[in-house]
Design goal:
Strand content: 15-25%
Bound molecules: glycinamide ribonucleotide
Shape: globular
Largest sheet: 7 strands, mixed
CATH topology: Rossmann fold
CATH class: Alpha Beta
Number of domains: 1
Structural class: alpha/beta
Length: 202
């Protein structure tokens, strides 16, 4: 096993952020595996193309969330990762899993949290009528999209935007900020506090 900072990426779908992380080729960071819970997710193809180990674990094969999460833990244990990245992983992880990897899980969300948590955030932003939205990288706590914020990217909403065009712009921004957040964490530059604020060393 290399002495690099090892990361595991969890994704359930297209995997454009997984690919952005791999392509960013972050110094001293190794993408150790992809974990996916959906059999025909395109992200599995992407992992294959980059010769990255993939672990397919369909959640529907498990009777309970805890059984599913226990199996994840047992399958990823040997990779001994320093950080888990939820990049479009469409399963809520229970406090059991989150506490097991305390402060070692980050999530990507397509809005400026705490606005528009949950599903279809770009649609929520359009319907609300905000003029700016964006994307957020945050530590995962036991709420949904509630953890301490590490980085955010800002996107202006134009009158001409619809859900598709907005999602495209948000994706492009996500592909920029997620690798930056991972790099900063790997360099030990991200400091958490007792409260919600996260500080980044220059
Ligand atoms: C990303 O836009 C990410 O922000 C979103 O899923 C997408 C995955 O895209 N995550 C959430 O909505 C989590 N609440 P990708 O599969 O192309 O990387």
């Amino acid at each position: 096993m290399s002495d690099k900072f090892r990361i595991g990426v969890f994704s359930s779908g297209n995997g454009s952020n997984f690919e952005a992380i791999v392509k960013a080729d972050i110094p001293n960071v190794e993408v150790s595996f992809l974990l996916c819970n959906i059999e025909d997710a395109y992200v599995l193809e992407r992992a294959k193309n980059f010769s990255i180990d993939s672990i397919l674990l369909p959640h529907k094969n498990f009777e309970s969330r805890k059984d599913f999460e226990k199996e994840i833990i047992s399958r990823i244990q040997d990779y001994d990762v320093d950080l888990i990245i939820l990049a479009g992983f469409k399963r809520i992880l229970s406090p059991f899993f989150i506490n097991y990897f305390e402060k070692k899980i980050i999530n990507l969300h397509p809005s400026l949290l705490p606005s528009f948590p949950g599903l279809r955030a770009p649609k929520q932003a359009l319907e609300y009528g905000v003029k700016f939205t964006g994307c957020t990288v945050h530590f995962v706590d036991d709420g949904v999209d509630t953890g301490p914020i590490i980085l955010q990217g800002l996107i202006e909403i134009l009158d001409s935007d619809d859900e598709e065009s907005l999602m495209k712009k948000i994706h492009e921004k996500e592909h920029e900020i997620l690798p930056v957040a991972i790099e900063l964490i790997s360099e030990g530059k991200v400091k958490t506090t007792e409260g919600r604020r996260v500080f980044i060393d220059n």
